[in-house]
Amino acid sequence: MKKLTMKQIEEGTGGRQIQGTSQAVVGEICTDSRRAKAGDLFFALIGDRHDAHKYLGQVIQAGCTDLLICDQAALEETEGGDQVNAILVEDTTKALQNLASYYLNLLNLKKIAVTGSTGKTSTRDMIWYVCQEKYKAQKNVGNLNNHLGVPLTILSFEEDTQVGILEMGMDKLGEIDLLAQIARPDIGIITNIGLAHIENLGSQEGIFQAKMELTNYFGEENTLIVHQDDEFLNKERIQGSYRLVTTGFDGKSDYIISRIDDFGAEGIQFTLEHQGRTQRFSLPVPGRHNAFNGALAVAAGAELGITMEEAARGLAKVQLTDKRLTVRGKNGIKVIDDTYNASPDSMKGAVDVLMHTRGLRSVAILGDMYELGETSREQHSLVGNYAAEKGVQLLVTVGKDARYIAEGAKKAGMKQVRYFPDKKAFLKEIDSIVDKGDVILVKGSRGMEMEEIVKNIME
C-alpha cells in the first residue's frame, strides 16, 4: 500500500479526525484486531456478530495508534484511547469502501474486474499470469471478492502496480453495482451465467441482470469481454455504449477457440484465432472448460497490448488458487480436489476432468450444491445423470440433497452408487470404499467443507 497520512484518510473516508495529529502516516490497513501492529490503520468494523470497537484496547496495546471508528464512546472508555490518532465516521464499512475508491484515484493503473457464475477465480488467476508477462499486476488474495474483500484488495495494491485484477462475487442484486462503483474498472469480464445463487435471484435472467451491473459505470472507453457461447452472453442480448469483445467456438467471435486437447490432470492445450492470427496455448491445469477461461484472459491481455505469444508464455505458468481442481497423490491414490465450491456446471466440468485423468477406477465423491432454490432436486439429479453418462465407475454422494444425485445416476443405469446423509456417516466407511489405483474427484458447495474428505484420504 502507498503510505497515506491521517489527513488523506480523513479526506478519503469523509470522516472527521477527533484527536491526534493529521500528519501521522499509515502503511497498511488492518481489520483484524489480532494482527494489528504499529504503522497500521485499524478499521473498527461492525458485523453481524462482532463489533471491533470491543477490541480497541488490544489494538492499542499491540502498538497500533491510528484508528478509524464510528463509536466515540468506546474509544473514550478504552485505556490509552486518549493517546491515539482517531478518525470518526458514521459507518466504518462504508468508510473502508470510500477509502478504496479514493486510493485508486491516487494510482496510475488499469483495472480489470471479473465476475460470473463459475470460473471467476480461475479466470482472475489466468489474467494475472498473462499480465505479469509485461506489467506489475496485483489481484485478490484467496477469495476476498465481496463488499469488504474488494476494498481491502484495492488498499493492498502497491504504489507501482500497473494492473489491478479484481474478482467480484455476489449473491444478490446490487452487490456487483457497489463493487463496480468502488473500482470503476476499465475492462470487465463475465465468465458465464449459470445457476449459482438462483435461490436469491429467482431465474437465470435475474442472474444475468445482476452480473451486468458490472457495466453500470461503463462508457465508450470501457470494454466488456464475454464468452458468447453462453445463452445470455452474446451480441444480441448485450447492448451498451462500451466496446464488446467475444470469445467462442462459433467462428464468429473475436477470439475463436478450437482444437482443445484434454490431458486430464496434466492440463489442456487449445488454439485461439484472432484477426487472422493463430496461437497454440498450453495450460497446466485440468478441465476443457479452462480453455474458455484462458481465452478470456488472453482477450483481456490484448486490451493492454499483450501479444498472444506473450499471453501463451503467461498461461503456461498458471497455478490456480487452492482447492480448485488441484490434483494430489499419495499411496497409489490420485485425488482431484475441487472442494472450494460447486454449481451444476462446475460439477459437470469436474466430472469431465475426472474422466480424462488416468487411473484404475474413476470415483466421484459429490456433495450438496447450495442456493439452487426450487431447481435443486432437478439439478442434483441431472448431475447424477451426467456422471452415469460419462462412465464414472463409482459414485458416492454425501448430504441432504445429494441423494438426488444418486437417484439421477441410478435412473441413468449406473450400478455402483453409494449415498450417505452426511460426511460423518461416509467417513466411517471410507477405508472400505477407497482403494489404491483410484482417481477420486471430491467436490461440493463451500458449506459442505468437503476438504475434510480430501484430508482424510490423503492422511
From TrEMBL:
Class of this enzyme = ligase
Main role? Involved in cell wall formation. Catalyzes the final step in the synthesis of UDP-N-acetylmuramoyl-pentapeptide, the precursor of murein.
Alphabetically ordered keywords of this record:
ATP-binding, Cell cycle, Cell division, Cell shape, Cell wall biogenesis/degradation, Cytoplasm, Ligase, Nucleotide-binding, Peptidoglycan synthesis
Organism lineage reads as: Bacteria, Bacillati, Bacillota, Clostridia, Peptostreptococcales
- The protein's organism comes out as Hominibacterium faecale
Name this polypeptide is given: UDP-N-acetylmuramoyl-tripeptide--D-alanyl-D-alanine ligase
Q: Name one GO cellular component term.
A: cytoplasm
Residue ranges constituting the Mur ligase C-terminal domain according to the UniProt record: 324-446
Gene from which the chain derives = murF
Kindly tell me the pathway this chain contributes to. Answer: Cell wall biogenesis; peptidoglycan biosynthesis
